[in-house]
Amino acid sequence: MLYQFRKELIETLLKKHEVVLSMPFAGHEEDFQAMGCKCINTKIDRRGINPLKDLHLIKFYNKLLKEEKPDKVITYSIKPNIYAGLLCAWKKIPYYANVQGLGTAFQKPGLAQFVTLLYKAAFIKVQKVFFENKGNAGEFLKRRIVRKKKIKVLNGAGVNLEHYSYTEYPETNVIHFLYLGRIMEEKGVNELFSAMKRLKKEFGDKVILDIVGFFEEEYKETIEDLVEKGIAKFHGFQKETRPWYGMAHCVVLPSYHEGMSNVLLEASAMGRPVITSNIPGCKEAVDEGKTGFLCQVKDEESLYEKMKEFLLLSDEEKKQMGINARKYMEHYFDKKKVVGQTLKTLGLE
What we know:
Largest sheet: 6 strands, parallel
C-alpha cells in the first residue's frame, strides 16, 4: 500500500533528504531500497487492539527513534499514529500523522471511546494531521482529538494520471460492472450481489458483474453461486488492475466507510464512471450525475436504482460520463498537486 500510494511522495523526499521506512516487509521493500531508502522490517499486528500486547512494538519504535535520530517523522495507519506519536512527543521530535480512514475502530461505541483517548494523547504535540476527506476531519474535531489549526485535508493520496491514463470506452453488447477490492461485508458486497441478481432478471445477458479481488471465507459459496448462475465472473486477485478498469463500463463500490477510495480515483482517471456510497471518502470522488452516481449506504434498493439508471443511459451518455470523470481527476486529484501540498505542509518544499 505504501509503494502503491506514497511512492511519488517518497521519490520527491529522496531528492533532498534521507528517508528511512519502518514497515512490515510485505513486498516492495527491495523497490524502496533501489530508490535509495533505508528499510527496517517492523512487525505489526494490524487487528489487535490491546496496548499491552503491542508493548513490543512500542519498545521497537523507541529503539528505532533513538538509533535513527530523525528530524521529522511521518506516520500512516492507526498504530504508528498512536504509538510512534506518543514517543515522538516524549522525545520532542516533530511528527505528522495521516488518518487514512476511520476504519472499524470507530464503528463500535466502546472501542471508539478507547481509541479516541489514545489518539488524544498521541496528538497533543502533533505538528499536523493529514486527512483524506472533510468528514473524517470533522469526526476528529467533534471528538476533540485534534485542534482545527492542526488539520490538513488532502484529496486522498491523489492519483497518478500518467500511470492511470485515459483508456477508450469499451464498445460491447454486454455492460460490465466491475467490483475491485476485498470481498467483505464492509465494502457493501451484500447489497451489490442482491442488486445484481435483480438486474440480471431484468436485463439478462446484457449485464455482468466482474469481481476482482480475494474473498473472506464466508463468501466462498456466494461467489460460486453467482458464477454458476451467470450473474458474475470471478477473476481473483490481480496485481495489475489497469486492464480490468479498461474493460469495465462502470466501477461499483457501495462501501460502508473509506478514507479516500483509490479504486474510485483510479477508475475515474482511466475514464470510467463510478457508482458508490454517499459517504465521506467516496462522495468526494464523484460529481453526481456527471461522472457517476451516489447511492445511500447499506441500501440495496438505492444501489439497484442507480445501477439501473446507468444501464438505461445511451452508449454516448455512458462514454461522456467517463470523459467527465477523467477531467474531474485532472482538476482535483492529480497526485503531483497532492504531493506538493504535502511537502508544503511538512515545510520541505
